[in-house]
Amino acid sequence: MSTNTVTSSDIILTGDRTTGPLHLGHFVGSLRNRVMLQDVCKQYLLLADTQALTDNMGNYTKVSDNVLQVALDYLAVGIDPAKSTIFIQSLVPELPELFSYYLNLVTVSRLERNPTIKDEIKLRGFERDIPAGFMTYPVAQAADISAFKATVVPVGADQIPMIEQTNEVVRKFNASVNQEILVECRALVPENGARLPGIDGKAKMSKSLGNSLTLGASSDDITKAVKMMYTDPNHLRVADPGQVEGNVVFTYLDVFDTDIEKVAELKAHYQRGGLGDSVIKRYLEEKLQALLAPIRARREELAAHPDQVMAILKAGTEKAREQTAKTLDEVKRAMGIVYF
Predict the structure, then answer these.
(1) CATH code 3.40.50.620 for 3-196+306-335
(2) Which of 32, 84, 91, 228 is most buried, by CB atoms within 10 Å?
(3) CA atoms within 13 A on the CB side of 70
Protein backbone atom coordinates (compact mmCIF):
# COMPACT_ATOMS: atom_id res chain seq x y z
CA MET A 1 0.00 0.00 0.00
CA SER A 2 1.38 3.39 -0.93
CA THR A 3 1.52 6.42 1.33
CA ASN A 4 -0.43 8.20 -1.43
CA THR A 5 -3.57 6.52 -0.06
CA VAL A 6 -3.34 8.56 3.14
CA THR A 7 -5.41 11.75 3.29
CA SER A 8 -5.66 14.76 5.59
CA SER A 9 -8.59 13.14 7.39
CA ASP A 10 -6.50 10.15 8.47
CA ILE A 11 -5.07 9.76 11.96
CA ILE A 12 -1.77 7.90 12.09
CA LEU A 13 -0.45 6.08 15.16
CA THR A 14 2.93 4.45 15.09
CA GLY A 15 5.91 4.00 17.38
CA ASP A 16 9.04 2.13 18.41
CA ARG A 17 10.11 0.12 21.43
CA THR A 18 12.65 2.07 23.48
CA THR A 19 15.26 -0.66 23.79
CA GLY A 20 17.97 1.09 21.82
CA PRO A 21 18.69 3.70 19.14
CA LEU A 22 16.94 3.17 15.81
CA HIS A 23 18.75 1.60 12.88
CA LEU A 24 18.70 1.48 9.09
CA GLY A 25 15.91 -1.10 9.12
CA HIS A 26 13.66 1.39 10.89
CA PHE A 27 14.69 4.11 8.45
CA VAL A 28 13.78 2.01 5.41
CA GLY A 29 10.67 0.50 6.91
CA SER A 30 9.01 3.44 8.60
CA LEU A 31 10.93 6.62 9.37
CA ARG A 32 11.08 7.92 5.82
CA ASN A 33 7.34 7.37 5.50
CA ARG A 34 6.65 9.09 8.81
CA VAL A 35 8.48 12.19 7.65
CA MET A 36 6.30 12.29 4.55
CA LEU A 37 3.10 11.41 6.38
CA GLN A 38 3.38 14.28 8.84
CA ASP A 39 2.61 16.67 5.99
CA VAL A 40 -0.61 14.97 4.93
CA CYS A 41 -2.33 13.73 8.11
CA LYS A 42 -2.54 13.94 11.89
CA GLN A 43 0.30 11.80 13.24
CA TYR A 44 1.07 10.47 16.71
CA LEU A 45 4.45 8.87 17.40
CA LEU A 46 4.59 6.67 20.48
CA LEU A 47 7.80 6.00 22.41
CA ALA A 48 6.85 2.50 23.57
CA ASP A 49 8.70 2.23 26.86
CA THR A 50 5.87 0.31 28.56
CA GLN A 51 5.83 -2.25 25.77
CA ALA A 52 9.61 -2.53 25.95
CA LEU A 53 9.32 -3.59 29.59
CA THR A 54 7.33 -6.70 28.62
CA ASP A 55 10.62 -8.52 28.10
CA ASN A 56 13.04 -6.18 29.91
CA MET A 57 11.85 -6.25 33.52
CA GLY A 58 14.89 -5.75 35.70
CA ASN A 59 16.69 -3.94 32.90
CA TYR A 60 14.91 -0.65 33.47
CA THR A 61 17.67 1.78 32.56
CA LYS A 62 18.00 0.15 29.15
CA VAL A 63 14.40 1.16 28.49
CA SER A 64 14.28 4.57 30.18
CA ASP A 65 17.64 5.77 28.80
CA ASN A 66 16.57 4.96 25.28
CA VAL A 67 13.47 7.14 25.40
CA LEU A 68 15.80 10.06 24.73
CA GLN A 69 17.80 8.07 22.15
CA VAL A 70 14.75 7.18 20.05
CA ALA A 71 13.47 10.75 20.31
CA LEU A 72 16.83 11.98 19.01
CA ASP A 73 16.54 9.61 16.05
CA TYR A 74 13.04 10.84 15.24
CA LEU A 75 14.08 14.48 15.29
CA ALA A 76 17.34 13.85 13.44
CA VAL A 77 15.64 12.25 10.43
CA GLY A 78 13.18 15.12 10.10
CA ILE A 79 10.18 14.48 12.34
CA ASP A 80 8.81 17.95 13.17
CA PRO A 81 7.15 18.24 16.62
CA ALA A 82 5.02 21.06 15.20
CA LYS A 83 3.50 18.54 12.78
CA SER A 84 3.77 15.23 14.63
CA THR A 85 2.94 14.53 18.28
CA ILE A 86 5.75 12.58 19.95
CA PHE A 87 4.80 11.18 23.35
CA ILE A 88 5.94 8.73 26.04
CA GLN A 89 3.68 5.71 26.44
CA SER A 90 4.17 5.20 30.18
CA LEU A 91 3.09 8.79 30.92
CA VAL A 92 -0.36 8.29 29.39
CA PRO A 93 -2.36 6.48 32.12
CA GLU A 94 -5.47 6.21 29.96
CA LEU A 95 -3.72 3.56 27.87
CA PRO A 96 -3.29 0.91 30.60
CA GLU A 97 -6.84 1.55 31.79
CA LEU A 98 -8.22 0.86 28.32
CA PHE A 99 -5.92 -2.16 28.15
CA SER A 100 -7.46 -3.57 31.35
CA TYR A 101 -10.96 -3.35 29.86
CA TYR A 102 -9.93 -4.83 26.52
CA LEU A 103 -8.35 -7.88 28.18
CA ASN A 104 -11.86 -9.09 28.89
CA LEU A 105 -12.60 -9.16 25.17
CA VAL A 106 -9.71 -11.47 24.20
CA THR A 107 -9.12 -15.13 25.03
CA VAL A 108 -5.79 -16.71 25.87
CA SER A 109 -6.16 -19.14 22.96
CA ARG A 110 -6.65 -16.22 20.54
CA LEU A 111 -3.48 -14.56 21.78
CA GLU A 112 -1.57 -17.81 21.39
CA ARG A 113 -2.72 -18.06 17.77
CA ASN A 114 -1.41 -14.62 16.87
CA PRO A 115 1.36 -15.34 14.30
CA THR A 116 3.41 -12.31 15.33
CA ILE A 117 3.38 -13.35 18.98
CA LYS A 118 4.29 -16.93 18.07
CA ASP A 119 7.28 -15.73 16.05
CA GLU A 120 8.44 -13.33 18.77
CA ILE A 121 8.17 -16.04 21.45
CA LYS A 122 10.30 -18.35 19.31
CA LEU A 123 12.84 -15.61 18.62
CA ARG A 124 13.27 -14.88 22.32
CA GLY A 125 13.29 -18.54 23.35
CA PHE A 126 10.49 -18.11 25.88
CA GLU A 127 8.84 -21.49 25.15
CA ARG A 128 6.18 -21.70 27.92
CA ASP A 129 7.92 -19.25 30.26
CA ILE A 130 6.21 -16.31 28.61
CA PRO A 131 5.77 -13.10 30.60
CA ALA A 132 2.04 -12.38 30.75
CA GLY A 133 2.72 -8.80 29.73
CA PHE A 134 4.45 -10.01 26.60
CA MET A 135 1.67 -12.44 25.71
CA THR A 136 -0.97 -9.73 26.04
CA TYR A 137 0.87 -6.89 24.32
CA PRO A 138 -1.37 -7.16 21.21
CA VAL A 139 -4.19 -6.02 23.51
CA ALA A 140 -2.06 -3.19 24.86
CA GLN A 141 -1.31 -2.23 21.28
CA ALA A 142 -5.04 -2.23 20.55
CA ALA A 143 -5.43 0.25 23.41
CA ASP A 144 -2.65 2.44 22.01
CA ILE A 145 -4.24 2.53 18.56
CA SER A 146 -7.89 2.88 19.52
CA ALA A 147 -7.21 5.53 22.16
CA PHE A 148 -6.30 7.90 19.35
CA LYS A 149 -9.00 6.55 17.05
CA ALA A 150 -6.24 5.97 14.53
CA THR A 151 -7.45 5.09 11.06
CA VAL A 152 -4.04 4.08 9.69
CA VAL A 153 -1.10 2.31 11.35
CA PRO A 154 2.21 2.02 9.44
CA VAL A 155 3.64 -1.46 10.08
CA GLY A 156 5.81 -4.10 8.52
CA ALA A 157 4.09 -7.04 6.84
CA ASP A 158 4.90 -9.21 9.87
CA GLN A 159 2.79 -6.92 12.07
CA ILE A 160 -0.45 -7.23 10.09
CA PRO A 161 -1.84 -9.85 12.55
CA MET A 162 -1.53 -7.20 15.27
CA ILE A 163 -3.74 -4.83 13.30
CA GLU A 164 -6.25 -7.61 12.68
CA GLN A 165 -6.40 -8.32 16.40
CA THR A 166 -6.84 -4.62 17.18
CA ASN A 167 -9.84 -4.50 14.87
CA GLU A 168 -11.29 -7.60 16.52
CA VAL A 169 -11.11 -5.81 19.88
CA VAL A 170 -12.72 -2.71 18.39
CA ARG A 171 -15.59 -4.70 16.88
CA LYS A 172 -16.16 -6.70 20.06
CA PHE A 173 -16.23 -3.60 22.23
CA ASN A 174 -18.61 -1.73 19.93
CA ALA A 175 -20.88 -4.77 19.80
CA SER A 176 -20.81 -5.10 23.59
CA VAL A 177 -22.10 -1.54 24.08
CA ASN A 178 -24.21 -1.50 20.91
CA GLN A 179 -22.56 1.74 19.84
CA GLU A 180 -19.85 2.75 17.38
CA ILE A 181 -17.43 4.20 19.92
CA LEU A 182 -14.08 2.88 18.72
CA VAL A 183 -12.72 3.07 15.17
CA GLU A 184 -11.20 0.30 13.07
CA CYS A 185 -7.84 0.93 11.43
CA ARG A 186 -5.93 -0.35 8.44
CA ALA A 187 -2.31 -1.31 8.06
CA LEU A 188 -0.05 0.82 5.92
CA VAL A 189 2.70 -1.49 4.68
CA PRO A 190 5.63 0.08 2.79
CA GLU A 191 6.13 -1.22 -0.71
CA ASN A 192 9.50 -2.67 0.29
CA GLY A 193 7.81 -4.75 2.99
CA ALA A 194 9.50 -2.75 5.76
CA ARG A 195 12.26 -5.34 6.10
CA LEU A 196 15.99 -4.92 5.73
CA PRO A 197 18.25 -7.89 6.41
CA GLY A 198 20.95 -7.62 9.03
CA ILE A 199 24.53 -7.20 7.90
CA ASP A 200 25.01 -10.93 8.52
CA GLY A 201 22.28 -11.78 6.01
CA LYS A 202 20.67 -14.27 8.39
CA ALA A 203 17.68 -12.30 9.69
CA LYS A 204 16.02 -8.91 9.63
CA MET A 205 18.08 -6.09 11.06
CA SER A 206 17.71 -6.12 14.84
CA LYS A 207 19.49 -4.54 17.80
CA SER A 208 19.05 -7.72 19.83
CA LEU A 209 20.72 -9.84 17.16
CA GLY A 210 23.72 -7.53 16.93
CA ASN A 211 23.46 -7.21 13.15
CA SER A 212 22.26 -3.64 12.85
CA LEU A 213 23.67 -0.27 11.86
CA THR A 214 22.28 2.61 13.91
CA LEU A 215 21.27 5.96 12.46
CA GLY A 216 23.86 7.66 14.64
CA ALA A 217 26.67 5.33 13.58
CA SER A 218 30.08 6.93 13.23
CA SER A 219 31.98 6.92 9.96
CA ASP A 220 34.20 4.14 11.31
CA ASP A 221 31.16 2.12 12.42
CA ILE A 222 29.75 2.29 8.91
CA THR A 223 33.06 1.18 7.38
CA LYS A 224 33.32 -1.73 9.79
CA ALA A 225 29.71 -2.82 9.21
CA VAL A 226 30.03 -2.79 5.43
CA LYS A 227 33.24 -4.81 5.56
CA MET A 228 31.42 -7.45 7.62
CA MET A 229 28.44 -7.68 5.26
CA TYR A 230 27.44 -11.06 3.94
CA THR A 231 27.90 -11.48 0.19
CA ASP A 232 28.20 -14.72 -1.81
CA PRO A 233 30.23 -17.35 0.11
CA ASN A 234 31.07 -19.09 -3.17
CA HIS A 235 32.53 -15.96 -4.73
CA LEU A 236 36.08 -16.82 -3.72
CA ARG A 237 38.00 -15.11 -6.51
CA VAL A 238 37.33 -11.89 -8.37
CA ALA A 239 37.04 -13.79 -11.66
CA ASP A 240 34.35 -16.13 -10.26
CA PRO A 241 30.70 -15.47 -11.20
CA GLY A 242 28.81 -14.24 -8.15
CA GLN A 243 25.24 -14.48 -6.94
CA VAL A 244 23.25 -11.36 -6.16
CA GLU A 245 20.22 -13.07 -4.59
CA GLY A 246 20.68 -13.12 -0.82
CA ASN A 247 23.76 -10.91 -1.17
CA VAL A 248 23.30 -8.25 1.49
CA VAL A 249 25.42 -5.66 -0.29
CA PHE A 250 23.20 -5.73 -3.37
CA THR A 251 20.06 -5.80 -1.20
CA TYR A 252 21.22 -2.58 0.43
CA LEU A 253 22.16 -1.03 -2.91
CA ASP A 254 18.64 -1.76 -4.19
CA VAL A 255 17.30 0.24 -1.24
CA PHE A 256 19.80 3.08 -0.85
CA ASP A 257 21.11 3.79 -4.36
CA THR A 258 18.75 5.80 -6.54
CA ASP A 259 20.85 5.07 -9.63
CA ILE A 260 18.94 1.96 -10.72
CA GLU A 261 20.90 1.59 -13.95
CA LYS A 262 24.23 1.68 -12.09
CA VAL A 263 23.07 -1.02 -9.67
CA ALA A 264 21.83 -3.18 -12.55
CA GLU A 265 25.22 -2.79 -14.24
CA LEU A 266 27.06 -3.82 -11.07
CA LYS A 267 24.82 -6.86 -10.68
CA ALA A 268 25.41 -7.99 -14.24
CA HIS A 269 29.18 -7.56 -13.86
CA TYR A 270 29.20 -9.46 -10.56
CA GLN A 271 27.16 -12.31 -12.03
CA ARG A 272 29.43 -12.82 -15.00
CA GLY A 273 32.59 -12.50 -12.88
CA GLY A 274 35.39 -9.98 -12.68
CA LEU A 275 33.95 -7.80 -9.93
CA GLY A 276 35.31 -8.19 -6.41
CA ASP A 277 33.34 -7.94 -3.20
CA SER A 278 35.61 -5.16 -1.99
CA VAL A 279 34.60 -2.97 -4.94
CA ILE A 280 30.87 -3.25 -4.39
CA LYS A 281 31.33 -2.82 -0.64
CA ARG A 282 33.27 0.42 -1.15
CA TYR A 283 30.53 1.66 -3.46
CA LEU A 284 27.84 0.84 -0.90
CA GLU A 285 29.86 2.47 1.87
CA GLU A 286 29.94 5.73 -0.07
CA LYS A 287 26.14 5.67 -0.29
CA LEU A 288 25.66 4.93 3.41
CA GLN A 289 28.21 7.51 4.51
CA ALA A 290 26.42 10.17 2.45
CA LEU A 291 23.03 9.12 3.84
CA LEU A 292 23.97 8.97 7.51
CA ALA A 293 26.41 11.88 7.82
CA PRO A 294 23.74 14.63 7.97
CA ILE A 295 21.52 12.53 10.25
CA ARG A 296 24.46 11.95 12.60
CA ALA A 297 25.36 15.64 12.62
CA ARG A 298 21.80 16.69 13.40
CA ARG A 299 21.55 14.04 16.10
CA GLU A 300 24.75 15.23 17.78
CA GLU A 301 23.47 18.80 17.71
CA LEU A 302 20.21 17.76 19.38
CA ALA A 303 21.96 15.51 21.91
CA ALA A 304 23.86 18.53 23.20
CA HIS A 305 20.53 19.94 24.45
CA PRO A 306 18.68 17.01 26.08
CA ASP A 307 16.45 19.32 28.14
CA GLN A 308 15.04 20.80 24.95
CA VAL A 309 14.30 17.33 23.57
CA MET A 310 12.58 16.29 26.80
CA ALA A 311 10.51 19.48 26.68
CA ILE A 312 9.28 18.42 23.25
CA LEU A 313 8.31 15.03 24.67
CA LYS A 314 6.54 16.62 27.65
CA ALA A 315 4.47 18.87 25.40
CA GLY A 316 3.67 15.97 23.08
CA THR A 317 2.64 13.76 25.97
CA GLU A 318 0.29 16.42 27.32
CA LYS A 319 -1.28 16.77 23.89
CA ALA A 320 -1.63 12.99 23.55
CA ARG A 321 -3.41 12.79 26.90
CA GLU A 322 -6.04 15.23 25.71
CA GLN A 323 -7.13 12.73 23.06
CA THR A 324 -6.79 9.59 25.15
CA ALA A 325 -8.77 11.11 28.03
CA LYS A 326 -11.60 11.91 25.64
CA THR A 327 -11.66 8.36 24.24
CA LEU A 328 -11.50 6.79 27.70
CA ASP A 329 -14.42 8.92 28.86
CA GLU A 330 -16.49 7.79 25.87
CA VAL A 331 -15.61 4.16 26.54
CA LYS A 332 -16.50 4.34 30.23
CA ARG A 333 -19.77 6.15 29.58
CA ALA A 334 -20.72 3.54 26.98
CA MET A 335 -19.96 0.84 29.58
CA GLY A 336 -22.00 2.69 32.21
CA ILE A 337 -19.17 2.99 34.71
CA VAL A 338 -19.06 6.77 35.10
CA TYR A 339 -20.66 7.19 38.52
CA PHE A 340 -20.21 10.81 39.51
Answers:
(1) yes
(2) 84
(3) 26
The 10s digit of each residue's pLDDT in 157-206 is: 888 999 999 999 999 999 999 999 999 999 998 765 447 889 998 777 87
Rounded CA-CA distance 162/235 in Å is 40
Q: C-alpha angle 86/117/74, rounded to 5°?
A: 20
The pTM score is: 0.89
Q: Are strands 42-48 and 186-188 parallel, antiparallel or unpaired?
A: unpaired
Residues 6+ apart with CB under 8 A from 147: 92, 94, 95, 98, 323, 324, 327, 328
Look at the chain and count its residues: 340
Task: Give residue limits of the domains in the chain.
Answer: 3-196+306-335, 219-301
The per-residue pLDDT for range 64-76, each reduced to its tens digit, is 999 999 999 999 9
Report the C-alpha dihedral over residues 109, 160, 323, 12, rounded to 10 degrees: 180
- The domain covering 219-301 belongs, at the CATH homologous superfamily level, to Tyrosyl-Transfer RNA Synthetase (1.10.240.10)
With cut-offs at 50, 70 and 90, classify the pLDDT of residue 57: confident
Q: Are 53 and 133 in contact (CB under 8 A)?
A: yes
Residues 41 and 12 sit within 8 Å (Cβ to Cβ): yes
* Contact present, 47 and 92 (Cβ < 8 Å): no
